[in-house]
Amino acid sequence: MLINESGIEKIEQLAGIKNIYAEENIDLTRYMENAIKAEIIYKRDKDYIVKDGEVIIVDEFTGRQMPGRRYSEGLHQAIEAKEGVKVQRENHTLATITFQNYFRLYKKLGGMTGTALTEAEEFSKIYDLDVVSIPTNRSMVREDLSDLIYRTQEAKFKAVVEEIKGRYEQGQPVLVGTTSVETSEYLSRMLELQGVPHNVLNAKYHEHESSDRCPGGA
Questions:
Q1: How far apart are the first and last CA of the chain?
Q2: 218 — pLDDT class (breaks 50, 70, 90)
Q3: CA-based Rg of the chain, rounded to a whole angstrom?
Q4: Which helix (H) or strand (E) holds 65?
Q5: Predicted confidence band at 206 (pLDDT cuts at 50, 70, 90)?
Q6: What SS3 state is found at 61?
Q7: What is the 3-state composition of the chain as percent helix, strand, coil, each rounded to the nearest 5?
């Protein structure tokens, strides 16, 4: 991310300073960079949503809302200004702890998961725990098919919709995972054009997930 000379000069004039990169203006430099990130990099309905006059972060891995969590160093305030909502005070972190050190505060640790074996070395080094693999009760019956690769994103989603439509016509429910709110809504519009009934479960409509309105999802 680069800022040209004229842009820097304009910012310095607005802030009433001579050199934004001077040591005493280090906080302003950070705010300037985060303001540009908020404007260019962070996208509405992808990285965050605006709900009830608040900017709410969307978890990049689960797609769920993270109420109460705020970006630091003025980034959240910059996004609030960008979206025209009330700019709230910046949070100050007084203490931090890693998940690993937090879990190590417990006297006993244990658990079960389908992915522990691949992280056996980490469990041993961090928690001094052994990982034991329990064999399945029955032999594997899943058929692992080859990956399908498409030249364009449009072709990929067209094929996805055709697959969903075929499953729907067979009476088979389908749960489709997407990487962002924007993508889920794009897929939803394509399904509507094909006459496939569905419910959208994303950061905007997460309350539908636990309701009786949601027999399936997209």
A1: 35
A2: very low
A3: 24
A4: strand 65-66
A5: low
A6: coil
A7: 40, 5, 55
Query: Among all chains, which residue has been given the structure tokens 């802030």?
Result: 15
Residue 54 DSSP symbol:
E
Strands 65-66 and 54-58: antiparallel
Whether pTM > 0.70 for this model: the answer is: no
- Whether residue 67 is predicted with pLDDT greater than 60 in this model: the reply is yes
What element of type H or E holds 123? helix 120-127
- The helix-helix angle for 26-40 and 75-83 (nearest 10°) equals 50
Give the CA distances from residue 172 to residues 27, 56, 124, 175, 216, in Å, rounded to whole numbers and listed in that order: 56, 34, 43, 10, 10
Neighbouring C-beta atoms of residue 117, cutoff 10 Å: 12
> What gap in Å lies between CA 41 and CA 39, rounded to an integer?
6
What residues does 23 pair with on adjacent strands? none
